[in-house]
Amino acid sequence: MPINLSKGERINLSKEAPGLKNAWVGLGWDLNATDTGTSFDLDASVFMVGAAGKISSDQYFVFYNNKNSPDASVQHLGDNRTGEGAGDDELVEVDLSKVDASVQEIVFVVTIHDATQRRQNFGQVRNAYIRIADSMTEQEIMRYELDEDFSTETAIEFGKLYRKDGSWRFQAVGQGYNAGLEKFVQQYS
């Protein structure tokens, strides 16, 4: 049975899933019945940052246009442009054993593509979540459902994997922003 996290809570993956090497990080959402005149396209992105809180090169920004990190530890499995269907809308595979030693945090964010132009925000999105599963057994380890009302935000940091005392941990962040992907690129570059 997976651990359900609330905003701000953390787990130690070494304790909750001993021996975990390959993880799936699934991100999902549903859209409310709204008519903004255009379809929604939500995008998951990953920033692999060092101790200074920055990525060491653009290659450590993994998204639909750069699907693999240079250390072969993170792979974005594709852009779901409609969010239709059940289950994960976008999936990232992480091989924890291959993460470059300089990477201290792996941050997962979701942004709405062209949100301003399309007049869209996370107030029109529901059932958003991030989950981690063992990709070898497909067993879900943890899930964080973002139950907060993000009425005007156009980007959300869902959560992050981070190193502490030689083990990988996860924090449910759930922080919304009135910004696009550029905000995160500027923050972490």
Characteristic terms for this protein:
189 residues, mainly beta, six-stranded mixed beta sheet, six-stranded antiparallel beta sheet, 3 helices, TerD family protein, TerD, Stress/Tellurium_Resist
How would you characterize the overall build of this protein?
The longest helix is centred in the last third of the chain and has 8 residues. This protein is globular. Helices cover 8% and strands 42% of the residues. The N and C termini lie far apart (37 Å). It has a six-stranded mixed sheet, with no helix packed on it. The protein has a six-stranded antiparallel sheet with strand order 2-12-11-8-4-5.
Strand count, sense and barrel status of the largest sheet are: 6 strands, mixed
What is the helix fraction of residues, given as a range?
under 10%
* SSE order, one letter for each helix or strand: EEHEEEEEEHEEEEH
How many H/I helical runs? 3
The total count of strands amounts to 12
Structural class: mainly beta
- Which strand-content bin applies to the residues? 35-45%
Q: Mean pLDDT, rounded to whole units?
A: 92
Describe the strand arrangement of the main beta sheet, using strand numbers. 1-10-9-3-7-6
- End-to-end distance: 37 Å
* Low-pLDDT windows of residues: none
Rg computed from alpha carbons, rounded to a whole number of angstroms? 16 Å
Query: What is the global morphology?
Result: globular
